[in-house]
Specification:
Layout (H helix, E strand, L loop, with lengths): L3 E6 L13 H10 L4 E7 L10 E8 L24 E7 L2 E8 L4 E8 L1 H10 L4 E5 L20 H7 L4 E3 L3 H13 L8 E2 L13 H6 L11 H5 L7 H11 L4 H15 L5 E2 L6 H9 L5 H19 L1 H9 L1 H8 L5 H18 L5 H4 L9 H8 L12 H31 L8 E7 L4 E7 L12 H6 L1 E2 L12 E3 L1 H33 L2 H26 L6 E3 L16 E6 L14 E5 L2 E5 L6 H17 L7 E5 L3 E5 L12 H15 L4 E5 L8 H18 L2 E5 L16 E10 L2 E10 L7 H7 L4 H14 L6 H6 L32 H33 L10 E3 L3 E2 L8 E7 L5 E6 L2 H9 L8 E7 L2 H14 L32
Parallel strand pairs: 4-7, 6-9, 7-8, 15-19, 18-22, 18-23, 20-21, 21-22
Antiparallel strand pairs: 1-2, 2-3, 4-5, 5-6, 10-26, 11-12, 12-14, 13-14, 16-17, 16-19, 23-24, 25-29, 27-28, 27-29
Length: about 1000
């Protein structure tokens, strides 16, 4: 008996819904709005109505874990959000511990020794399902605040107090796993895999303030670092990987591997795969529940195909090997390279053997001239084209025979009546009839309007008319006065439906069986899927970095000797030509600075002089460096810091009852306690929120403390009295943001220089922001009267001169930046058509080489150069895209269209042009040939030459008219005898 479904929502409401017409849509709507839903099946047996009903939980769905029951039988994909973990937080002598459990993946991870700020940063970026707090948090959690049953305060308290949470006791990992099993109704035998990758040398996670001030966590008004690391076309899983890596910087070995991989990617000359991104959580759940449909299997097949494609390419194989360790860190799975390749080959072969991909034989529908084609489409598209016909040949044949029987029955019983009606010249309003598809009833019936079979006796078709009977629905009710059928048609229709149901059941059985087979390889599939996500993220980053003219820094280990000054700069950070990451330095829109930091730096400068921008730029560049990424400078040497901490302006927290100065001191305390001699500490406008004299002294003491720690860093300040204090510092240096005197006014240059700047430009800044002139004038009078002793006549005169010289404002050189490209769409290759395409591609490549080489030889003779350029064509397959090395390079390309015609073009943005071509209807599977030339002028000449000469070689072009735009390349001379270099 068909089960009855109930839905129990147990967060805010508790109600039951019976037999929803669209169960999946309802569940999706509920989970999308934050509800957690249990699906309860009710089975009614042959007992009395008042007997107790048998009910059981058949599944559950919650945000991040949608309902997938029945997905195997549908012909569309499921929007599967990223899974939401259950999070537990504890506190010990080492610091804070966070445990994250993913029920969907059956995995957990734990991270200990976190600061309060780092923990809150993780909570801000983690959309968790349930939050549990260990009772250890009820005790003193830090040196300044207490979280007890009656005490409040602290950053973590403010974060958790606004959310729903539950307390728990005992060992955090053990007890949290018990909570998860209870929460989801899991058996005790369900095993959760520990995916924690421990590393003693891994830097500390970013503090909340650091992450928000450089836009790793998107914050209003702050330039977003994530948006400049990747092209705008890159979204989804690759962005999440980059964000998580920035929030949790890797160990030195992994960072070095990532950087080496990016360098390899930057120099690749062959085309690269599209890198199909599949959610690991979706993969695990669908295979575990055996609900993966043919669409998902095609996507998995693409993942495996792209892994094997990289393995078989000499250039990409090295990249594949180098991605193994970063994937291990991301998944917690340690997989051997040979094992990965072998298992991917097996899984790919198994899917390829079973799943049908655009094969007309596998999806050929039944047809009949007298039966509407929509009937067979609706009935057979539910199972045809999912698995290869060879696996369901018997069922396929039986459906064909049943379709023929149905066609015969309809022809014999209905067609004579139709013919009789058409032959009768009835007056207006006379009898009419036709054979129609009743979609709601999944039937083919005769529909007669104003038709009474009894009056047709004695006419041709009389026998068929007598056989007609009213059509009935599945409940035995008469459908209407105009619908008729016959016993023969109904029997044939029933036979056809039975055959189709058996075929569909067989297809679902095969798909579920394939899910069961692949479930044994689930770790390999998860590893492969994550590897492609990382590959796509890094390729996208390299492409954007090349477009922005960023560089790879030299990443160094810190010298183990605390006071050692190594010659290789291991304890030193040097950034040459540093630009703000949010500006286009290559366009000359940013002032570049050189930062050579060997100790603590005390930075001064006027308002609007660029102190905050400099600190933010240094922080972002250092973070990018220790993650293995490219960064905005001309060259750089970056030590692998154990922590990077940036403190900028603080605001008050009314919920905690703390002023802005209290919040600043709380953050500074965390910064000092977390800093070591291998840390980077950046503090902007220290002690700005309190009385000047005491704030100056506190700032001076903090500077002394950081100097004793021996960390690298910058402390910026407007408290100029700090230079009058007897500071006990050994290594601190003084730097300033320069100003210049232009047209009677002092203006900032935004350049870093040596020395101290005591000019604030406060009056000029206030005037520039619209403060009335009268207020500014009065403020100047008060200033000179109150500080007459400090402001001597000489200093008043000095204010009119240049305080500091700093060079020009903008860079004088201009750099060309090519337009940004986007990735192309993914479709599977067709094996049969691929062989034809290879032959055509070789012919086209040969013709291109012969034609263009002749022109290059002419140019070679004209320029009398010793360097002879050669045409080297590179192929871009249907599911491939150009490598990052084509960015900004002049390329001549030829598109091999599916209609056997060619399109010749030239571009400096090959990736974008390929995407644009493939976005047009019917062109999504087009392949390309391209070669790089020196300069746009030569590229244009070769483009026109190819347009005019390829037709002479027997090729058809779609843009022949473009060859008339220039007066070269129109010769009709044969090129057969020209040598190929």
């Amino acid at each position: 008996m068909r089960p009855i479904y109930f839905i129990h929502c147990h967060i805010f409401y508790h109600f039951q819904l019976l037999l929803l017409q669209n169960l999946r849509q309802t569940l999706d709507d509920l989970t999308r709005n934050g509800y957690s839903v249990s699906i309860v099946e009710e089975v009614q047996g042959p007992t009395q109505a008042r007997s107790r009903k048998g009910r059981f939980i058949s599944g559950h769905a919650h945000p991040g874990n949608p309902y997938v029951f029945g997905l195997v039988g549908v012909d569309h994909d499921l929007d599967f959000p990223e899974p939401m973990p259950v999070v537990g937080i504890s506190h010990s002598a080492r610091g804070y511990l966070i445990v994250s459990v993913l029920e969907t993946m059956k995995t957990y991870s734990s991270e200990d020794g976190l600061t309060e700020e780092a923990l809150v940063a993780k909570l801000r970026t983690c959309r968790y399902h349930h939050l549990f707090l260990n009772t250890s948090l009820r005790h003193n959690s830090s040196g300044t605040c207490r979280w007890g049953e009656y005490g409040e305060g602290g950053l973590l308290w403010g974060e958790c107090n606004a959310r729903h949470f539950e307390w728990f006791e005992g060992d955090p990992v053990t007890e949290l796993l018990i909570k998860v099993r209870e929460l989801y109704g899991l058996d005790d035998g369900v095993v959760f895999r520990n995916v924690t990758v421990l590393s003693e040398n891994r830097p500390c996670p970013l503090h909340l303030g650091t992450a928000t001030q450089i836009g790793v966590i998107p914050t209003e008004g702050i330039p977003c670092l994530l948006k400049v690391l990747l092209p705008s076309s890159c979204a989804g899983l690759p962005v999440l990987y980059i964000r998580d890596l920035l929030l949790n910087p890797p160990a030195y070995e992994i960072a070095s591997t990532i950087q080496a991989t990016c360098k390899l990617m930057s120099n690749v000359t062959c085309s690269i795969p599209e890198f199909t991104c599949v959610s690991s959580a979706k993969l695990v759940k669908l295979l575990e529940l055996r609900e993966a449909n043919h669409i998902e299997f095609c996507r998995i097949k693409n993942v495996l195909d792209e892994i094997l494609h990289m393995y078989r390419s000499s250039e990409l194989c090295e990249i594949l090997k180098s991605l193994m360790d970063p994937t291990w860190v991301a998944t917690g799975l340690k997989v051997d390279f040979e094992t990965l390749v072998n298992e991917c080959e097996w899984a790919y072969g198994r899917i390829h053997e079973m799943i049908s991909v655009d094969d007309e034989i596998d999806r050929k529908l039944s047809s009949c001239s007298v039966i509407p084609s929509e009937f067979f489409e609706d009935m057979e598209c539910l199972w045809k084209g999912r698995v290869k016909r060879v696996h369901i040949e018997e069922e396929f044949a039986e459906v064909g025979r049943a379709a023929q029987a149905l066609s015969l029955a309809v022809t014999e019983d209905f067609l004579p009546i139709i013919s009789r009606i058409k032959a009768t010249t009835a007056p207006l309003g006379g009898p009419k009839g036709e054979i129609l598809y009743a979609r709601e009833h999944e039937a083919v019936w005769f529909k007669g309007k104003r038709f009474a079979p009894s009056i047709w006796a004695g006419t041709p078709g009389e026998e068929q008319i007598k056989q007609l009977k009213p059509a009935i629905d599945s409940k035995g009710r008469k459908v209407g006065e105009e619908w008729f059928t016959t016993i023969k048609v109904e029997d044939a229709l029933m036979r056809y439906h039975d055959a189709s149901d058996r075929a569909k059941a067989k297809v679902l059985e095969l798909l579920r069986g394939l899910s069961a087979e692949l479930q044994s390889k689930i770790n390999i599939l998860v590893f492969a899927a994550m590897l492609l996500v990382i590959a796509k993220a890094l390729f996208a980053h390299v492409s954007e970095g090349r477009r922005r003219k960023w560089v790879f820094p030299t990443l160094c280990r810190f010298n183990k000797l605390k006071d050692a000054k190594s010659l290789d700069g291991a304890n030193r950070m040097k950034l040459i030509g540093l630009s703000p990451y949010w500006l286009e330095a290559a366009e000359g829109s940013a002032v570049q600075n050189t930062v050579d930091m060997q100790s603590l730096v005390l930075l001064t400068g006027p308002n609007g002089g660029g102190k905050s921008s400099l600190l933010r730029s240094i922080c972002a560049s250092a973070l990018l460096g220790i993650c293995g990424f490219m960064m905005p400078a001309e060259s750089a040497v970056i030590p692998h810091f154990d922590s990077i901490m940036l403190h900028m302006k603080s605001y008050d927290s009314p919920a905690d009852g703390k002023s802005s100065f209290q919040m600043e001191m709380s953050e500074i305390r965390s910064l000092i306690t977390g800093a070591s001699s291998r840390s980077l500490v950046l503090v902007d406008e220290i002690c700005r929120g309190t009385e000047t004299a005491k704030g100056t002294c506190i700032a001076g003491s903090i500077v002394e403390t950081l100097d004793k720690i021996g960390c690298l860093g910058i402390v910026s300040t407007h408290l100029h009295g700090i230079f009058d204090l007897p500071l006990d510092t050994k290594n601190a240096e003084y730097k300033a943001m320069a100003t210049e005197y232009v047209d009677g006014q002092t203006k900032p240059t935004w350049r870093l220089i040596d020395g101290i700047c005591r000019e604030s430009l406060a009056f000029e800044t206030a005037k520039r922001e619209g403060i009335p002139e009268t207020i500014i004038q009065r403020a100047e009078d008060l200033y000179f009267s109150a500080y007459a002793e400090e402001v001597s006549p000489e200093r008043v005169e000095e204010r009119k001169k240049v305080s500091y010289s700093g060079g020009i404002l903008n860079s004088s050189h201009e750099a060309h930046i090519p337009p940004r490209g986007t990735t192309a769409g993914a479709l599977d290759h067709n094996t049969n058509s691929g062989k034809v395409e290879v032959i055509e591609r070789k012919d086209v490549e040969s013709a291109i080489t012969i034609i263009c080489q002749r022109k290059l030889i002419e140019l070679y003779k004209q320029k009398s150069t010793s360097e002879l350029l050669a045409v080297q064509c590179v192929t871009i397959g249907a599911r491939e895209q150009p490598p990052p090395s084509t960015i900004g390079a002049s390329c001549v390309y030829v598109m091999l269209r599916p209609d056997k015609r060619l399109y010749v073009g030239v571009t400096d943005d090959l990736e974008g042009r390929v995407r644009a071509h493939r976005s047009k209807e019917g062109m999504h599977n087009a392949s390309f040939l391209y070669f790089i030339v020196q300069g746009k002028s030569i590229a244009c000449q070769l483009e026109t030459l190819l347009i005019n000469q390829l037709p002479n070689k027997g090729f058809k072009l779609t843009n022949v008219a473009d060859g008339k735009h220039r007066n070269f390349g129109t010769t009709n001379l044969s090129l057969e005898s020209m040598p190929v270099h």
